Amino acid sequence: QVQLVESGGGLVQAGGSLRLSCTASGSTFSSYTLGWFRQAPRKEREFVAGLSRSGFNTYYADSVKGRFTISRDNAKNTVYLQMNSLKFEDTAAYYCAAKNTFGVTTIPRDFNSWGQGTQVTVSS
Questions:
Q1: Do strands 46-51 and 58-60 pair parallel, antiparallel, or not at all (unpaired)?
Q2: What are the distances in angstroms from CA 46 to CA 13, 56, 73, 99?
Q3: Which of these, 118, 37, 36, lies nearest to 80 by C-alpha position?
Q4: DSSP assignment, residue 53?
Q5: Which of 97, 116, 107 is nearest to 9 (CA)?
Q6: Which of helix, strand or coil describes residue 101?
Q7: 3-class SS at 75?
Q8: Which terminus, N or C, of the chain has the lesser number of Cβ atoms within 10 Å?
Q9: What is the pLDDT of residues 84-109, one digit of tens each?
């Protein structure tokens, strides 16, 4: 398994931007399919964005499409989530996740490695 550590969360005004980073260690990063999920208080964890091992295929939740961008830098063992035009409803703890099987999925239980989460708070 790979160990994941997120960073980059914080407080931002609506309309602003943040970039989350997730750095991996412990295994071959390039062989992992990656994802970002989020969880707001009293809500279930939901898929935000996913990225294939090659980096060529990306997937987004409808709620963030056109505003968020997922990318990876295998040389730095890091996956990013660029978040623009943030809205109050984007407020949540954000988690990166990795799985060592082929294909992006939107289901949390398909991922076998998780970071500890980073809080994003958007003020209205």
A1: antiparallel
A2: 22, 22, 24, 16
A3: 36
A4: T
A5: 116
A6: coil
A7: helix
A8: C
A9: 999 999 999 999 999 998 889 999 99
